[in-house]
Amino acid sequence: MAKLELQNVKKNYGATEVIPGIDLTIEPGEFLVLVGPSGSGKSTLLRMIAGLEETTGGNIVVDGDDITRTDPSARDLAMVFQTYALYPHMTVEQNMSFALRMRKEDPAAIAQRVEEAIVLLDLAGLEKRKPGQLSGGQRQRVAMGRCIVRNPKLFLFDEPLSNLDAKLRAQTRLEIRKLHDRLGATSIFVTHDQVEAMTMADRIALLKDGTLQQLGTPQDLYLNPANTFVAGFMGTPE
Ligand code: ADP
Ligand code: MG
């Protein structure tokens, strides 16, 4: 389990200040939901943690190590995207084992890790299929599997359920949360969906215009909103 500290993390695109400076600590084993309207900077923040986007200022620290300038491939984390980003020409098995094969890990060990993930994610029987022959929910689980086999310290989810229909979304929410608990992972889950935040989070961090509006448990934000924006977002009755 990893502890993640964001210390005054900033992002500018040219002259545009997208994130003026965020301080946030995510505790080991925590499931933090990062929520906020479209354009509030959620993806930018995740991408900086993953190293896919450079920071303009501040530090990103995992278990005491400053990884702000660490190459993305050397960061011990995994990111699940809205579009899943699966390789279309590879089978389920090949998609899931790809990163491990690149790292030249022992083939027998790879096969075992993939097999475990397939069972855990209820994908047995689909090993030889390609992404085009899977449902949206199954593709989503393959994307999860690709992360799990690497056994990362930290999971980053960028709206991974947006492409699923409402029923599957509700079910997959629970599956992801269970998986997090079972793996003893630390996770940041981005969504713009208030219900998703309420049902999944240990704590919610609510962003608006790149600024943290409130950090707390779902109950905190709902019952004691820090401002009218938080109240409006959480649906707190007046
Ligand atoms: P969210 O994920 O919360 O919808 P984003 O992090 O994608 O928000 O975007 C935050 C802000 O940064 C938006 O105003 C967006 O237009 C801007 N932005 C994102 N990526 C870029 C980029 N590559 N160049 C310029 N502006 C960007
Ligand atoms: Mg986004």
UniProtKB/TrEMBL annotation:
Gene Ontology annotations of biological process type: carbohydrate transport; glycerol-3-phosphate transmembrane transport; glycerophosphodiester transmembrane transport
Chief location bin: membrane
Positions of the ABC transporter domain: 4-234
Protein name: SN-glycerol-3-phosphate transport ATP-binding protein UgpC
Organism: Pelagibacterium halotolerans (strain DSM 22347 / JCM 15775 / CGMCC 1.7692 / B2)
One term of GO molecular function: ATP hydrolysis activity
One GO cellular component, as annotated: ATP-binding cassette (ABC) transporter complex, substrate-binding subunit-containing
Keywords: ATP-binding, Cell inner membrane, Cell membrane, Membrane, Nucleotide-binding, Sugar transport, Translocase, Transport
Membrane topology per record: Peripheral membrane protein
Family statement: Belongs to the ABC transporter superfamily.
Cell inner membrane keyword on record: yes
Compartments in which it is found: Cell inner membrane
Domain of life: Bacteria
Segment of the intact protein contained: 1 to 238 of 379
